Amino acid sequence: MNPDDIAAEAERRASALPAPPALEQDSPLEASDEDIRDRLTRWGFIEVDEEDVIRSTRRGGAPITWFKRMLAQGLRQYHIDQNAKATRFNLQMVGYVERLERRIVELERKLEEREETGP
Predict the structure, then answer these.
(1) How far is the C-alpha of 42 from the C-alpha of 65, rounded, in Å?
(2) 3-state secondary structure at position 56
(3) Per-residue confidence of the chain (119 residues) as pLDDT tens digits?
(4) What's the rounded Cα separation, in Å, for the pair 81 and 71?
(5) What is this structure's pTM?
(6) 96/91 Cα distance (integer angstroms)
(7) Could you tell me the residue range of the domain that residue 36 belongs to?
(8) Is residue 7 part of a domain?
(9) Alpha helices in 20-61 (DSSP H)
(10) Is residue 10 domain-resident?
């Protein structure tokens, strides 16, 4: 195939794909501040179900999957500790952002009061 044929095939395949979905009501662009805070808090928690993510996609991968699961079992304490540290960091950052947000609101309120009363 020459480059023109490849480009035409790519365009044909792209036109056959479904259109991207429209923005949902609770998209980040339209979410309220409270929704965003709730999402950040939920996203801050790290929960990994190792049984779902440990597998081999190779042909005859059952022994490889078994080995990976045994290795993960041996390193489980380390993984739990790392996830706990990451979760604590994430939640501390969410708290910090919330404190900054409250501080900005307070400073904006003071600025508006100062502008209303004059110099």
Answers:
(1) 30
(2) coil
(3) 677 787 777 778 777 877 665 545 555 445 677 777 787 778 777 776 666 677 777 788 888 888 888 888 888 888 888 888 888 898 888 889 889 989 999 999 999 999 888 76
(4) 16
(5) 0.52
(6) 9
(7) 24-117
(8) no
(9) 33-44, 50-53
(10) no
Whether 6 is covered by a domain: the verdict is: no
Runs of H (alpha helix) within 17-75: 33-44, 50-53, 62-74
The two structure tokens encoding residue 32 = 């309220």
Quick one: tokens of 21? 């979905």
Residue with tokens 């939640």: 91
Phi-psi region of 54 (alpha: psi -120 to 50; beta: other; left: phi over 0): beta
Domains contained in the chain, number: 1
Find, among 87, 56, 86, 88, the residue nearest to 71 by Cα.
56
In a domain, 92, yes or no: yes
Identify the DSSP state of 9.
H
